[in-house]
User: Fold this.
Amino acid sequence: MNLLVPSLPAVRLLDRFRSFVTGGQFAVFVVVLFVFYEAFVLALAFVPAASTGLGSFAEEFRVRCFNYDPKAGAMNWGLVGLLTTEPFFLQLLVYFVWRRQVRELAWSRWLVPIAAALALAAGLIALSLIQVQPPAVPLSQLPFPGDRIRTHLPLPEFNLRDQDDQPVSPASLRGRPVLLTTIYSGCTTACPMMLTQIRKVLGDLSPVERTQLAVVAVSLNPEADTRELREMTARTYSFNAPEFHFVSGTGAEVNRFLDDLQIVRTRLPNGQLDHSTIFFCLDRQGRIAYRLSAGEQHHPWLLAALRALVAEGP
Assistant:
């Protein structure tokens, strides 16, 4: 009976691997790797945005991992703290298990070279991830995908009143394409940008297209958005009913509708609201046809979506 005997190189490789895992080198590797990770993640929270390179990578990372809103400049700092401190407990665990080996290695001349080599390797990996990012194509240069992103989702029910104290509901809007969004009167960051974009999109539509469209802005702060404040906001941006409805109601009914729309909003320490910046384009049957982000880059798509809904006819 023939027995498989490991070759001498394989035995040496296994011995080296066993020595690496049981010795202090593995613990140093883990600790250094997570130290670099923590520093790198924290740095990405502060790197200025850019169209390419590290700035582009950092902004995309903040949007995906920190709930960063480039329009409002708001970021969930709780998530920043969580991602940068979470590995600390694993580092403590690694040190507790390998503390004797790490202490022994600390007195040897190999600790600093090992840590430096690991930090360099981690840095090169991070740099390669940044460099392979494909050049971003501005959304404004991409054709509107139309039917590929078209939906037919039901609009949640609501029964609110606008700045002229007129009732507004899905039934009252049916038969007209609707541009629906969420704002509040005391906003000084994202909402002025969104209202300006609404003003621009209405100006880009033809008079015939504009007469067929209704705009509904739902208050994100119903307890504070009085009828007088909503009327003042509409007047400031030269919006008039029946074209524009800045609606609100009791806190319970407005917040229920916002929750049904999955609108994220968080009260900040300064009293402002960190909130979603979304436009909902409704077809003539009151269904959500398109859901688009606010912002200058998305303006051509928003205009194309509204024109497509107007062109569908009664």
About this structure: The longest helix spans residues 77-106. The radius of gyration is 28 Å. Strands lie at 153-154, 160-161, 167-168, 178-183, 214-219, 244-247, 265-267, 273-275, 278-282, 287-293. The chain has a mean pLDDT of 81.
